[in-house]
Design brief:
The protein is an alpha/beta fold. The chain is about 30% helix and about 25% strand. It has a four-stranded mixed beta sheet. The structure holds shikimate-3-phosphate and phosphoenolpyruvate. This is 3-phosphoshikimate 1-carboxyvinyltransferase.
Amino acid sequence: MHITLQKSIIAKQSSIQITGSKSESNRLLLLKALYPELSLNNVSNSDDSNLMTHALTTDSGLVDINHAGTAMRFLTAYFSVQEGREVTLTGSKRMKERPIKVLVEALRELGADISYVENEGFPPIKIKGKRLTKHKVALKANVSSQYISALLLIASKLENGIELTLEGEITSVPYIKMTLSLLEEIGIESSFNGNIITVKPGVKNQQPKTLTVESDWSSASYYYSIAAISEIGTEITLSSYKENSLQGDSVLADIYKHFGVSSVFNNNSVTLKKEFSNVEPLTLNLKNAPDIAQTITVTCFALGIPCDLTGLHTLKIKETDRLVALKNEIEKLGGNIEITDKSLHLSASNTIKEMVSIETYHDHRMGMAFAPLALKTPIIIEDAMVVSKSYPTFWNDLESIGFKITK
Ligand SMILES: O=C(O)C1=C[C@@H](OP(=O)(O)O)[C@@H](O)[C@H](O)C1
Ligand SMILES: C=C(OP(=O)(O)O)C(=O)O
């Protein structure tokens, strides 16, 4: 379904309740499967979390996680320790192009029985669950942090826990720290010193516990972008958020100061307010927050601000090659953008072509990142339901703050 997006009357003050973080949810759903005494609140209603829940409750021998990267990686580790169970884990056409070798080799090193069904190094994979007896393993840390989180999530169930040696520059570090913090919240002890992470076996004071998932900060990024592009004085309140988040993308509150957007935390919510205009160029390294690269690029384009973004080496293996996708779509709109394998440079521009049809490449973040441009000019978003991967009610929420959507 394609939609046309236009600005109608944007409310001066509005509020939105955003669903739970898909990253926190997918970790906690796995931990709940390992430790059933856990209860969870505000679990994400995203496709990726629904797929995770289904995968953890089905007894089928074939589990299809479609586009969900975290589910693919976390479940590879999970099924490796389900003794006596045999599962083939598969996904979408794109998932079969997203590498998993680093994780499979690390799990094999620990004793897991995993084989490739089609292409070496990529899903689908066949996993025969076993008791893993080894605990020391080294793995490359510069491809995806999800491999590391996957190992950490099952570590407390291994006889001797785990000792990981991370090789190369560690990417997406906040996601690793999120995993360790959630382990700590349920009583699993760990340490992260330099490039060594250890997790102890078992849980301290195992007892029923309720954890509340914070709302999704990557989803909040689209409202930061809307606030940045809006008139001075526009306020948007988002819930449920806290100032000390486990999610690395909460760095948005700092980053968007550059665009004149302030963030005030109060009563479990954050209010974004456009305070002033600024057209200074932006230079940022996003190796710790790769999922907000598209949002920030589009904000800069809308405001005519040049930007240099680095640390984007993981973008090529996400839902689509996000660097190429950004270049294609920004150029269609009349912008000028240069990309390498790990960075992009957007030039200043002051015109945006009208009624351009934005391709989304099966990537939720392409649809959501380009939507705020409708504040400047009418725009078409192709395959708009792609957003359900992380944020199913995105278009309804945009309507509620004054965007006009025509199907
Ligand atoms: O662990 C997680 O929940 C995630 C880690 C990041 O992936 P990489 O570590 O592959 O960059 C991020 O892009 C993804 O959306 C979610
Ligand atoms: C990269 C993402 O997700 P995943 O890797 O879990 O598919 C994302 O949500 O931007």
